[in-house]
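User: Please predict the structure of the protein below. I'd like the answer in structure-token form so I can feed it into my own downstream comparison script.

Assistant: Understood. Taking the following sequence of 401 residues as input:
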Amino acid sequence: MNINSRNNYSNVFSSIFSSSSGGGMNNFLADYASIKNGSYGKLMKAYYAKNKTDVSSTARKTATYKPNPAKKSKDSAETLTKIKKDADNLKASADTLLKTGEGSLFEGNDRDALYKAVSSFVDNYNSVLDSAGKSDTATIQHRASMMASATQANKNLLAKVGITLNDNRLSIDKEAFEAADLHSIKSLFNDNYSYANRISSYSSYISNKAGAEGASTTNTTTNKVTTGSTNTSKDSADTLTNIKDSTGKFIASADTLLKTGKDSVFESKNDEDLYNAISAFVTDYNSVLDTAGKSNVSTIRQRVTMMTNATQSYKNMLGKIGISVDSNNRLSVNKEAFQAANKDSVKSLFNESYSYGGRVSSYASYINTKAASEASKANTYSSTGSYTNNYNSGSVYNDYF
């Protein structure tokens, strides 16, 4: 009998007893893998540590545990929950339209199904603008504004497929949509650099930010003993942390350049301000390539490729303002050449609604969200030692605890 893989023990024993043993014995033997790989040991430590804590918690609570005050969000938990839900729905409807290959709405000839998908996108887009518009969190407001700007930039194209823009809200005319050219619809909702792709990235960022802000409304240190979860992502916890940190910095650098109005670096009379902002963008961009380039998660690698492809497509324009792209897709900026460059050219690359800066920032936002999602993956037992239901082994122990 070949039982070289420790993960197969439960299957071996389950098959032996499946016809003759009761459900309890079958479940118990199915958990043999958890004992072998150490998960059960973690559970026992968590359980007895918890009991020990319960006995002496009153005596130790003041002396040992010092809860940190929560960092309160500017938005209420209810507002953030609504924003996150709406942003998740918008991303889902955008991703439905962006799907390629088998199962793509653009592969069949069902115009009614395509209309329903686009109509859902329109409704969810409006919901995000409504809920995010009530936010007092600057970064959520900013991304919602960028969504609106991207929509405004595509206003004429949207109108050609029966989608009109009024006071930043979308509406769709079914008859006009179904009579529209399919190629025009696809260019808006199914191509790699399409309008829908950009909206998907913005909504992903908004969802991630609302989730993080929501956590801050209840983030306190308690006296509960935890053991830490086992990460089941293809990337290590350190790799994912580095990716989140680098993309977070890069998004902030891009936002500095994308900012409009009186506080924009393009309104500053000090040339050093703009150069420093560009230099930070370049440094943080390269950092994202370094960290996310080490990822084993296919969707993260895909967005890194999309970032570098976008950079390659703007290579000549970047070169004209003193920013070069090397053979490894890394950026570098020549200060003298940059400061001698036409500032309108710089602005068109980094400050306009559908600019290079906005595009690569959107990809970084997706990577940041995906890295956070990967980091949250837990194995059979959670940080408190309870069963997470991610796998088929471990349930028997929850019956006892």
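That's the full token string. Residues 77-216 form one domain.
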